[in-house]
Amino acid sequence: MNLKITLDNQVVSATLEDNPTSQDFIKKLPLEVELEDYVGKEKIFSVGKLSTKNAPSRYQGKKGDITYYAPWGNMALFYGTDNPNASGLIYLGKINGDISLLKKAKTIKIEKN
C-alpha cells in the first residue's frame, strides 16, 4: 500500500507492509493530526488500538520507519538514529522521501495514494 504523507505543507510518499497491523491502520485513513516529538528521535500520535496479530514481540525502529507502539496505542515515525529495541513496537512501513522534514513537522496528513 502506497501512502501520501503531508508534513506541514511538504509531501512525501510511504510504503506499508501487508500485515494485520498495517491493514487496521489503513482503515483509519485519511487522517490529519498534530505530531508530538518524543525523545528527539521520533514523532508520535495516537491512533488507538490496532491488531497485533502475528507481530514480533520487539522491534528496533530505524530512521524513516513507520511503526505502531501497541502499549500506548501510538504511531511512531522515526527520524533519529540509535533508537531502542522496544517491546510492543511493530513495523508497518517506510517513508520514501526527505526524513529531515519529519523532525520539524507539527502536523501530518496521511492518505491512501
UniProtKB/TrEMBL annotation:
Cyclophilin-like domain residues = 5-104
Question: Which Gene3D superfamilies does this UniProt record tie to the protein?
Answer: 2.40.100.20
The UniProt entry, under Pfam families, shows: Cyclophil_like2
Coiled-coil positions? none
Query: What name has this protein been given in UniProt?
Result: Cyclophilin-like domain-containing protein
